[in-house]
Design a protein that fits this description.
By secondary structure, the protein is α/β, with parallel strands linked by helices. It has a single domain, classed as Alkaline Phosphatase, subunit A. The protein is about 30% helix and about 15% strand. The strands form three sheets. Strands 1, 2, 4, 5, 6, 7, 8, 9 and 10 form a nine-stranded mixed β-sheet that branches. Helix 6 runs parallel beside helix 8 and helix 7 crosses helix 8. The longest helix is centred in the N-terminal third of the chain and has 26 residues.
């Protein structure tokens, strides 16, 4: 009789434990992370766009918190994306350029032997969430695979913490036969029918994932859009809509009036709206956090909301990004935050949101933004944020630091410095390096110390430097 009672108690205790575990899983918030490619600071209505129409994204901002000083960790895609997933600066991981980068063998400086993959010994953000009981699914652009190297096939999203991969491969842009239209030639994404549009098909796949999840397990839906990266292609009806709009549009803000790109932005907005509607339909919207941001600046200077530079450049237009977070019951609806944040911050933030222990040895360069979300802090207690780009792109190699309201840029070829006070000169029109030499020297010393602390790879003089041939190389790449 005693043994039967013990067994009964053990069974009851086990049942209670399982029920408790299910309840804990249900209480853990789901996470929808939306990452847009080549997203300009001025692409959305809530960030000032008049030509592009983004009602769903504007609604997301109305229901959440909008950041006005959010930065990508790099001005090009692969290093920025790796920084989000690792919580580490590109300078620390040595993954400092888009894979596999431009080649300028006749340039003044030699590009270091940089890393073209994320190291497996590091625990990525999706791996940490997966360890914490989350289902993890990836959709869209990956561009974090060492193309042409022996271990190429060991670096798919499913090798770095995602249970599911739809569309992720080595491509930085659609290169299938139809580009943004069927056929797509992407992993686990059916080609659909002729005329099907990539953004729509990826959204279909994300919706299917949401339809098939169980509420007993929280999830990370990481939707990494290929749009609005070139080639500029959108559904014909949207192109016609914006062609007609452009004819009478008064372009007072110097916006990019390309009907195809505007159509791409609207197709993105439609996708965001579909995901939001599905969360509501499934009854999980109140327990789901939505984050929307970009990997680097827009690909044209008219997409940056008036900021200087664009993708690839060291200026604000190259690295300042829209960032919106909706967290029902925590984030004040329609609020704005001016705190300086950067892509490395997402890793520790998502761990804290999920109620999981931080991994400071992993996300060494990130800070949790949860205190900003819940209002316990107005700004993070950080000294500065940094960039390191020892590569040639549209611009020459550079490093940069933002400390307080000041931003200093160092150009590696000649050591020249540019200093801007962003509080009064957000468009970086007035170089203060000669006017405020002490401030420039202070930030320059900070930048150099930081590079040493993270083991940043530096450039060396190129013994084969040939200015004429370098110009030919740039002309061939239309730079």
């Amino acid at each position: 009789m005693y043994k039967q009672l013990l067994n009964r108690l053990t069974l009851s205790s086990l049942t209670l434990l399982l029920c408790s575990m299910t309840l804990i899983a249900q209480n853990k918030p789901n996470i929808v992370f939306l990452l847009v490619d080549d997203l300009g600071y001025g692409d959305f209505g809530c960030y000032g766009a008049d030509f592009n129409e983004t009602p769903n994204i504007d609604k997301l901002a109305d229901e959440g918190m909008q950041f006005t000083n959010a930065y990508a960790a790099s001005t090009v895609c692969s290093p920025s994306r790796a920084a989000i997933l690792t919580g580490r600066y590109p300078a620390r991981t040595h993954l400092t350029d888009w894979i596999s980068g431009h080649k300028f063998p006749n340039a003044k400086l030699l590009v270091p032997d940089w890393n073209m993959k994320m190291d497996h010994e590091r625990i990525t953000m999706p791996e940490a969430l997966k360890d914490g009981g989350y289902a993890t699914a990836f959709f869209g652009k990956w561009h974090l695979m060492p193309e042409g190297q022996p271990d190429f096939d060991k670096h798919y999203p499913t090798n770095h913490g995602f249970d599911t991969n739809v569309g992720g491969r080595e491509w930085g842009q659609p290169k299938g036969r139809g580009k943004y239209f069927s056929p797509f030639d992407m992993p686990n994404l059916d080609d659909g029918k002729p005329g099907d549009y990539l953004t729509n098909k990826l959204t279909d796949a994300a919706i299917t994932f949401l339809d098939t999840i169980t509420k007993e397990k929280p999830f990370l839906l990481y939707f990494s859009y290929y749009t609005v990266h070139g080639p500029l292609m959108c559904p014909p009806e949207l192109e016609q809509k914006y062609k007609a709009k452009a004819e009478s549009f008064k372009n007072t803000k110097n916006e990019f009036l390309d009907p195809k790109r505007a159509g791409m932005v609207e197709s993105l907005d439609i996708s965001v709206g579909r995901v939001m509607s599905k969360l509501k339909e499934l009854g999980i919207a109140d327990n789901t956090i939505i984050i929307l941001t970009g990997d680097n600046g827009g690909n044209y200077d008219e997409t940056t909301g008036g900021l200087k530079g664009y993708k690839g450049f060291s200026f604000e237009g190259g690295d300042k990004e829209p960032f919106i977070v909706k967290w029902p019951g925590v984030v004040v609806q329609g609020s704005k935050n001016e705190s300086v944040v950067i892509g490395t911050d997402f890793y520790p933030t998502l761990l804290e949101i999920a109620g999981l222990p931080s991994r400071p040895i992993e996300h060494m360069d990130g800070m949790s933004m949860v205190p900003l979300f819940n209002g316990s802090l107005k700004k993070l207690d950080r000294d500065a944020i940094y960039w390191h780009y020892p590569h040639y792109h549209r611009t020459k190699p550079y490093g940069a630091i933002r400390k307080g309201n000041f931003k200093l840029i160092e150009f590696f070829e000649d050591g020249s410095l540019e200093l801007y006070d962003l509080s009064i000169d957000p468009n970086e029109t007035n170089n203060l390096s000669k006017i405020q030499p002490k401030k420039a020297e202070e930030l320059f010393l900070n930048l150099k110390k930081w590079r040493v602390s993270v083991g940043a790879q530096m450039m060396k003089k190129n013994p084969n430097y040939d200015p004429a041939r370098e110009k030919e190389d740039r002309d061939k790449k239309n730079m």
